[in-house]
Amino acid sequence: MSVSADTAREFGGPIRFARDTALLTARSLRAIPRVPERLLDVTIQPIVFIFLFLYVFGSAIHVHGISYKDYLFPGIIAQSLAFGTIGAGVATSNDITEGVIDRFRSMPVNRLSIITAQVMGQFCEALLGITIVVVFGLILGWTPHLTAPHALELAGLLLLGMIAFTWAGVLFGMLVRSPDAMQGIGFIVVFPLSFMAGTFVPISGMSAVPRAIADWDPISALVASVRGLTQGVRSSGSWQLDHPEIAMALWCVAIIAVCIPLALRRFNRTLAG
Fold first, then answer.
1. Confidence (pTM)
2. Residue boundaries of the structural domains of the chain
3. Nearest to 269 by CA among 96, 117, 106
4. Alpha-carbon distance 43 to 51, whole Å?
5. Around 237, how many Cα atoms within 13 Å sit in the side-chain half-sphere?
6. Are 171 and 262 contacting, i.e. CB atoms less than 8 angstroms apart?
7. What is the largest CA-CA distance in the chain?
8. Could you read off the pLDDT of 91-100 as tens digits, one per residue?
9. CA-to-CA distance for 93 and 171, rounded, in angstroms?
10. How far apart are CA 45 and CA 268, in angstroms?
């Protein structure tokens, strides 16, 4: 029985899928020097937040039992990871609106590798952003207290979080009509959630309504996990703040379970259209 060229191109084998994913990921990363502003959200933006809150607002913020510098940097790490949702969405929407996906459709590549390469490219950018925040924090005097088991747990949770938030961004990027719309909607949703997540000030000091939202904000679990593992500081107020690592893992698994099938379904519709 013969296999059509379209079928072979769409499915291929695992080796071909891995090869095509690597090639398309490299293509995405090679485009960065030509469009360096793509990295503003993972390079300049977190540094701006660091300087604003550490040197402008930090003198007016007091956190019991810990220096504000040690309180702030775990929150910035978590916020940078969450903001990766916007970057992934904007990049995906941009590829669709500029016809990049259509060009790939006519090429002899595994079709699934097109979307996995998009995820891998955005994953690399998110990893760069977190690395910059960590290095910048260490230079400015941040002192994380990580044991080897906690370091492994933190690395696993951040890896899981980057996968979840990147897939969520890719899905949203395929649902909106333009990169500008993705940028606007992303900031409307992610920006306030990240601020209410205990990133810059303790949740316990918030008024009733934002505190109720923050207690079950998924980014709150992310912030509390990073802060708890690096500084030993624990929040309280809701089940997820009392057990942030478990809550973060559950949130990430739920996001992955929902977003990957929906993203693949939307991607197939985009190709068919």
1. 0.86
2. 5-272
3. 96
4. 13
5. 23
6. yes
7. 74
8. 888 888 887 7
9. 9
10. 34
